[in-house]
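Q: For a teaching session next week I want to show students how multiple molecules come together into a single three-dimensional assembly. I've collected the sequence lines for a complex. Could you give me the predicted structure tokens for the whole thing so I can convert them for display?
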Amino acid sequence: MNRRVAPLAVKADKLAASAPVARAPKRERGRARAWREHHARSFRASLRRLAARPGATALTLLVMSLALCLPFLLWLLLDNARALGGHLDDARGVGVFLKPEVDAAAAKSFADRVRARADVADVAIRTPEEGLAEFRSQSGFADALKVLQSNPLPTVLIVTPKAIAASARGAPPLVDELAHDKHVDQVQYDALWRQRLDAILAFTARLAGVLAILLGLAALLVVGNAVRSDIVGRAEEISVMQLLGAGRAFVRRPFLYTGLWYGALAGLLALLLIGGVEIALAGPLGQLTSSYGERFAIHGLSIAQALALLGVSIALGWLGAWIATARQLSFGRLR
Amino acid sequence: MGVIRLEQVSKKYPSGQEALTDLSFELAAGEMAFVAGHSGAGKSTLLRLVALMDKPTRGQITVNGHDFGKIKPRHVPRVRRSVGMVFQDHRLLMDRSVFDNVALPLEIAGCSREETGKRVRAALDKVGLLAREASLPATLSAGEQQRVGIARAIVGKPPVLIADEPTGNLDPMLSVEIMKLFAEFGQVGTTVLIASHDLSLIKRMNKRVLVLDHGKLIDDFRPGAPAPQTGAQA
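A: Of course. Below is the structure for the complete assembly, covering every listed component.
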């Protein structure tokens, strides 16, 4: 026993001799470096910890990425719908469907009368024959149309009104008066439809916003819960660190990095999911857009939007971890 | 002025139990003392107060010039670092190597890696475990684990070292060895306060003994003075 202890007595002096004598500036530099080292270590260690529990980590990441990609997909849909709506901006023409008994001469004189109005810029006549030819060439119903014994299409006047204020709500008086004319069967006014579309788009945008907030909260809770269980699992380690004099920031740091990793990885996963959805929808969407004659193209997430998604995801991960640590760690509080 | 000074300190737990009553004593720099008494006498409570893990209900505690009653909560961790602690169950982190365990206080204090390496090896050398720095604590014997705990407590060179039943889980031979290790720190200026219920071991060390009973200081025995009870046997 003494054999083992005796050399220790000599070493005590050696230890005392190496007492801290470092000069102040050097010490400051050392501190800054130690701080950076602890950041780097927390950064790596938190990733290793996530990798050590692949099942739980994957589940958390999947839930978080789903919560992230849903509002972004809705937003993407909305963005595309807006682009489609944009093409309809100039579709302000008024389609006037005349009654079937109105013949070509009557249609012509009616068209002249409408053209003479002060609020009309132009009137074009589309005869039933022209209409049938157009229908045949565009709709692919050529064979079916052969079965028809007579032309069921009415004469249509395409009336282009003079400047209608873009912001005007409801139909202008012209549309109303045309609708009540005795020659007219039905008036189709695209601007009304356009207003309805705008309302739907506005509603969907609000819906996307509300969903984004709700699902963002869900992502926050998912990260918070994952970090919380991590904290509970490391309670002994935390309590030892606090006993050894670890401050709030020191104890918190690895958990904040855990949240950061969750956010970054879930963001990447969400981008993959969105990419997958785009690929899955590419075929049917292509058919849909080609029927619109290349007038608009479906667009995916831009680089900036993808970066924004990543940024939001990382911020949510960090914030979730921050809230969890604030709740779970009673930092060296004295009773 | 003493490095550790308590003036009329009382601690009452929220349950109403009075753990310490009117405790006053002072320990000088480099002094080593034992806190003796039955379990429940208040030994652990006293150590928790000195380690800034608990607040006294009444009285004043000064450790290393810090008046504990005047420390702001955000400064508590920094003051705690000036007190090295050894626990009965050593409380090592089992998933870290011996080196990393001992390095933890330095990491917390913000030492550079270079300096940490030097100081950790000096501390491990001192407790005779330099060869085991890469081992995991679970592969060490109970005595070795406790020595790692001691290395961790002293690596930051705290002016005060506190140990709560550090030999509680060790056989008598190992216990003496550990106690002698503590005594060496007293020789290099560290103030050492050890709680223990092992009276024969305490007597053998021939140091100052504070005897607690039901939260009261009933004896403050110093070496050289006539030993109480059966001290002559030691």
